[in-house]
Write a structure and sequence with these properties.
With 394 residues, the chain is α/β, with parallel strands linked by helices. It contains 15 helices and 13 strands. The two termini are 39 Å apart.
């Protein structure tokens, strides 16, 4: 099977999921220790086709009024400043090719780093797509935790390279010691999502530094910080860029800034890393005019980001508290999503939720069949979800 197939129905390329055995080794112990009783799922839900993959996008798209808690999107949407900027200046010049310097300048100014340390792209996924061609073109392997966001690993395998997947530790945390042991002399890329997706677990700056020290010459550590607003270390990884460490930090406007549909992201790295990345970078061709205008406006409205973070923190407590009352065990990590162990295979329940126009992700997608990944929504979204879970118990 092509590891890059079926992207439209899943944010995770086929062939990247861990085995059930890997799941039991890593997270099963934590769930068992919690001793929670699982909710009974309705007879109708149990009767559905439990083994069939569940697409991320329902056939025909999301119905109007759906409760969408499956893609970790910002439920607040973009800030008014972003909308106003795009409406005022984002379309008039859409017949012209873009000039990206103002966007690069805004990103560099926001992080207090030189402009030559910044590359922009069509979401951070663009960099995950082409970076393997820069570092694995002449051979080598990639090391990454599993389950995690496996896009670059899928590209590497499509290139005929080896992806070395390291099971997570107990509670869904990244096992740094095991990651270092997996790094070989032919390793050219190590990938981390921080916080990890789908478990939400962070990795500290000290652990990142220890992984950098374990890299062989010519290798790079990619730190995918799509959800960096929830990290206890804040912007700690960017300090490593200032030190010209072999690290590539990825950021996106899709999450906290609420403009996933405009597809905008960027990479930050030292010159020694970007020298390789630029050989395969698409330049400004992936940036549309509306995104070019939206980026600086989004960076200028940090109050909107703070409102988003506050909404997520409140929603995490609302959802976890409601699930615990039902005997369901959520993982404890801070991110705009979390995993919860229902004690039974969740595919039938996810399908029953879809029948009610409520969309979440089944854990089977990551080899975690009794888990569900739930994106935090608005207070109303969260309550709609919890009410549905309560109703589907018998």
């Amino acid at each position: 099977m092509n590891p890059l197939s079926d992207r439209a129905s899943s944010c995770y390329p086929d062939g990247l999921m861990p085995t059930r055995r890997a799941f039991l080794r890593t997270l099963g112990a934590a769930a068992a220790a919690a001793g929670a009783s699982a909710p009974a799922i309705s007879t109708a839900a149990q009767g559905r086709k439990a083994d069939e993959p569940i697409p991320g996008f329902p056939p025909g798209g999301f119905p109007d009024g759906s409760t969408r808690m499956n893609f970790n999107e910002n439920p607040l949407g973009p800030s008014k400043k972003v909308i106003d900027a795009v409406l005022e200046n984002g379309l008039d010049e859409s017949n012209r090719y873009n000039y990206i310097d103002p966007l690069v300048e805004a990103i560099a100014r926001h992080h207090a780093i030189p402009e030559h340390n910044v590359l922009v792209g069509c979401g951070s996924t663009e960099f995950l797509q082409f970076t393997p061609w820069a570092f694995l073109g002449d051979g080598g392997s990639i090391v990454l935790p599993t389950p995690s966001y496996g896009w670059s690993a899928g590209v590497a395998e499509a290139m005929g390279r080896q992806a070395i997947r390291v099971p997570l530790g107990e509670g869904g945390v990244i096992d740094t010691a095991a990651m270092k042991k997996a790094i070989r002399s032919d390793t050219r890329m190590v990938y981390l999502a921080n916080p990890n997706n789908p478990t939400g677990a962070p990795i500290s700056r000290d652990e990142i530094v220890s992984l950098i020290r374990a890299l062989p010459g010519g290798a790079v550590l990619i730190v995918d910080e799509a959800y960096h607003d929830f990290l206890p270390d804040g912007d700690g990884s960017l300090e490593l860029v200032r030190q010209d460490a072999p690290v590539l930090v990825l950021r996106t406007f899709s999450k906290a800034y609420g403009i996933a549909g405009l597809r905008l992201g960027y990479a930050v790295a030292g010159e020694s890393v970007l020298e390789k990345v630029r050989t395969v970078w698409w330049g400004d061709f992936g940036i549309n005019t509306a995104a070019l205008i939206a980026g600086p406006a989004a960076l200028a409205d940090q109050a909107h980001v703070r409102r988003y973070v506050a909404l997520i923190d409140k929603g995490l407590e609302q959802l976890r508290s409601g699930l615990r009352e039902l005997g369901i065990t959520p993982l404890p990590h801070r991110a705009p999503f979390f995993m919860a162990d229902f004690g039974v295979a969740t595919n039938p329940l996810v399908r029953s939720l879809q029948d009610r126009q409520i969309f979440v992700q089944p854990g089977a997608k990551w080899g975690m069949p009794t888990f569900m990944r739930i994106s935090v929504g608005t207070s109303r979204d969260n309550e709609v979800f919890l009410d549905a879970i309560r109703a589907l118990r018998v």
